[in-house]
Amino acid sequence: MNKSNLIPVLKSFSKDEIKEFEKFLNSPFFGCAKFVLKFYKVLIKYYPVFNEDDIKKEKIFGIVYKDKKYNDALTRRIISDLIRYSEEYMTYKNFKKNDIYRSSCSLNELRIRNLGNLFRLRSETLMKKIDNSETVDPFLILESYFINVEMCQHRRFIRDEMMHESARMANEDFIVFFLKVFTVNSHRIFSFHNEIKSTAVLNNAFRERFDYEGFMDDIEDYESKYSPYLKMIRYCHNINIDYEDRISCSKLNSLISNNPGYFTNFELFEIYINLVTFYNYQNIKYDNIYLNEIFTIYSDILKKKLFHITNNPLQLSFCRKYISLCLLKGETESIKKFREDYFADFPELYKQDLSDYCDSVYFFEKKSFERSLTAAMKINIEKELFKKDIKILKIKNFYELDYLDSVYSEIDNLKHYLTDSETIIPDNLKKSRNFIKYISSVMRGKENKSGADLFVLKKELKKERLIIEKKWLLEKIDELSKK
Predict the structure, then answer these.
(1) Dihedral pair phi/psi, residue 4, rounded to 5°
(2) Cis status, amide bond into 48, omega within 30 of 0
(3) Contact in structure between 319 and 354 (CB atoms under 8 Å)
(4) Distances (CA, A) of 355 to 120, 333, 334, 361
(5) 34: buried, middle or exposed (CB in 10 Å: 19+, 13-18, 0-12)?
(6) Share of the chain above pLDDT 90, in %
(7) What's the whole-model pTM score?
(8) pLDDT value at position 199?
(9) 266: buried, middle or exposed (CB in 10 Å: 19+, 13-18, 0-12)?
(10) What SS3 string covers the chain?
(11) In this predicted structure, what is the pLDDT of residue 450?
(12) The pLDDT value given to residue 452
């Protein structure tokens, strides 16, 4: 039965949800047949493992129906019913916690049933909650829009001031929400223009004719509860389409600082993503000018566990970048703390590999090269950037341990790997190839071979912008120069 879609669904349920789902099935309101519930009660005894030998259809059927002959058609129907009920249960769970639709659906039912007094009380309560909210994000804006639409519809036959005010507010909500969506979509098109097909006629026609900058200029001094939000949208848009716009970047940071608690964690996470993209460009081009700022953002994401907003573990790319930032900042102990504090949040498939990677980097910085190399040898992450990083880590360890033949072997291995790479971006390829160039020159100097002018080599290396492990290479040149 493990091939059935039912098992992954049940595995996704927590222990409490497993019990709650049984109550859901047992409720007469949902019309679940008793034999379906009985089948579920037997099947769920094998939660959460659901070993294939335990949950064979014939075996579960035999427990439910005792001595009756196995009926595959009936079993398939039961499984199909359970999948359908599980979807209804998950829909109910989602609806229950989703204020956007629950509020408007409640008002919609009261309105169409002509329950005017209840509608007024409920709508006033909902709008008071929204108006008193200290935070703003797309979900609250959308909830406000749907509520105002219902309020406008409720008053449409009276046509009083309240109807017009609700219509105005609904329109404002929609415009702010649209600007957010428009900005996100513009960033996506700007970032992935080579991948996005030109068949989006409606999108392209609107983008070409909408005077975004002129519109945002007109509302720059507009005062409402959405004012900071509109400014945030504009500044994020500006730094997304112009990676040199430091003024907008500064304004965005000031906006966050001057409005504590205004942006929800969901929105703050989105803002951080925009800032990180901007800082990455600036740091590459201007020699880590925003190193402190980007490290602060990554640290804040971890501290507040903002990555939990997407209900996903930490991304591999995030982990790699954070470890790299720790090295650049000289925060070696933060790497050890990262592994200890966030091991549970590592991607399940790479938990041990990431742990070993943290150990390898940490022990190298502590000059425990044997331990670093041992940890590096265990890592098996099938991602090109990680593979490249690990190969370079091995080269450094072999060099420090004076395993010169292994250094040459690993350099050759790295050369071939970079040549075969299809996903590493040009700048990263250039950085890695420059590392190969300079470590090869350092090796010639280490072995006292001709052509290794350390003074010239150091001078050239200092000027090189696109290179990784620059600090370590300079240290090795200095060490050779003293001999």
Answers:
(1) -75, 150
(2) yes
(3) yes
(4) 57, 14, 13, 10
(5) exposed
(6) 73
(7) 0.79
(8) 59
(9) middle
(10) CCCCCHHHHHHHCCHHHHHHHHHHHHCHHHCCCHHHHHHHHHHHHHCCCCCCCCCCHHHHHHHHHCCCCCCHHHHHHHHHHHHHHHHHHHHHHHHHHCHHHHHHHHHHHHHHCCCHHHHHHHHHHHHHHHHCCCCECHHHHHHHHHHHHHHHHHCCCCCCHHHHHHHHHHHHHHHHHHHHHHHHHHHHHHHCCCCCCCCCHHHHHHHHHCCHHHHHHHCCCCCCCCHHHHHHHHHHHHHHHCCCCHHHHHHHHHHHHHCCCCECHHHHHHHHHHHHHHHHHHHHHCCCCCHHHHHHHHHHHHHCCHHHHHCCCCCHHHHHHHHHHHHHHCCHHHHHHHHHHHHHHCCHHHHHHHHHHHHHHHHHHCCCHHHHHHHHHHCCCCCHHHHHHHHHHHHHHHHHCCCHHHHHHHHHHHHHHHHHCCCCCHHHHHHHHHHHHHHHHHHHHHCCCCCCCHHHHHHHHHHCCCCCCHHHHHHHHHHHHHC
(11) 55
(12) 59
* Amino acid at residue number 295: F
Q: What mean pLDDT comes out for the span 169-175? A: 95
Estimate to the nearest angstrom the gap between the alpha carbon of 89 and the chain centroid: 27
Handedness of CA 361, 366, 371, 373 (dihedral sign): positive
What's the N-to-C CA distance of the chain in angstroms? 69
| Nearest residue to 476 (alpha-carbon basis) of 463, 447, 361 | 447
Average pLDDT over residues 6-19: 95
Is it the case that residue 188 has pLDDT exceeding 80?
A: no
Decide: 1 and 80 in contact? Cβ < 8 Å: no
Whole-number Cα distances in Å, 12 to 5, 90, 116, 218, 457:
11, 11, 42, 49, 57
Closest CA to 296 of 254, 265, 329: 329
Residue 186's pLDDT is: 79
For 309-360, the pLDDT digits (tens) are 877 889 998 999 999 999 999 999 999 999 999 999 999 899 999 999 999 9
**Residue 142 and residue 173: Cα distance in Å, rounded?**
7
Average pLDDT (203-216) is 87
Q: Is the pLDDT of residue 183 over 90?
A: no
pLDDT at 286 over 60: yes
Euclidean distance between CA atoms 249 and 255, whole angstroms: 10
Q: What angle do CA 14, 16, 18 make, to 5 degrees?
A: 70
CA distance 108 to 124: 14
Region of 314 (left: φ > 0; alpha: ψ -120 to 50; beta: rest) is beta
Summarised one tens digit per residue, pLDDT across range 20-64 is 999 999 999 988 999 999 999 999 999 999 998 899 999 999 999
The amino acid occupying position 100 is I
Query: Would you state the pLDDT for residue 195?
Result: 60
